Amino acid sequence: MTVEKIQNATTEDFFEEILIVCPKCKGSKKLKLPKKIINQSKQLTTISIPSGLNCEHSFQAFVDKKFSVRGYQAVDFEFSALEFYESSSGPMEEEELVKDEEKDFTSMPIFQEVIQILRDCVDDKEILGSGIFSIEGKVLYSSLPQTTLFNTIREFEVRSQRNLVSVKKMYLELENSEKFISNLMEIFETKFNLVLMFSFRVKFGMGNLKIRDLLKKFKHIFGKDML
């Protein structure tokens, strides 16, 4: 098998094509979405669609574990990147299926504050994407470019398999000089990896300062519940 065929096979295994329809103008487009993120979600996966990807509008789609769109939500603000995260809300019939004992960090209202902080830090000039992952590689929130997202999930999965989950920080530089920094943090006695993706303009020193700024904002929200 050639390298190209292997890469194509990997892409097909990782992505599922889903038809997305704008709730405002009804413009539609088939998007390839990561299977693993949707399969990992306990409830629905919220997919934030930035303007220009499907049509001129930004909106959100709620996708279930069978890769069916259960509903849409128009928004009055812009997304800077394609986002994925586990829904704490969605179409009512799906909410009724979610038991109280299944609710966790991503279902808490405070998680929406975390998402907004991560969303606000992405600017297309210096910070290209952000994310929060479990130490096993489960995506709690991501606006990372999809290729980077795939590699990040694989990296954390390998770390977990090799019992390297206590690695506090990781610095990577790609061939195009874009940079990736992950930082281990603990909230409500559970460990997570905070990830930022930087443009070629940003040096690791500056990137590390931006990570620290985010951690300070999270600490302000969670107080003593964050280490």
By DSSP (H or I, 4+ residues per run), the number of helices equals 6
Q: Level of helix content?
A: 25-40%
Question: For the largest beta sheet, what order do the strands appear in spatially?
Answer: 5-4-3-6-8-7-11-10-9
- Tally the structural domains: 2
* CATH level-four homologous superfamily name of the largest domain: Dynein light chain 2a, cytoplasmic
Average pLDDT taken over every residue: 84
CATH class of the largest domain: Alpha Beta
Please state roughly what percent of the residues sit in beta strands, choosing from under 5%, 5-15%, 15-25%, 25-35%, 35-45% or over 45%: 25-35%
Overall 3D shape: globular
The main pleated sheet reads as:
9 strands, antiparallel
Structural class: alpha+beta
How large, in whole angstroms, is the Cα Rg? 17 Å
Short recap of the structure:
The protein has 227 residues and is α+β, with helices and mostly antiparallel strands. The protein has helices spanning 3-14, 35-40, 92-95, 109-121, 146-161, 204-222; strands at 15-21, 28-34, 45-49, 59-63, 69-74, 83-86, 127-134, 139-142, 169-173, 179-187, 190-198. The protein is built from six helices and eleven strands.
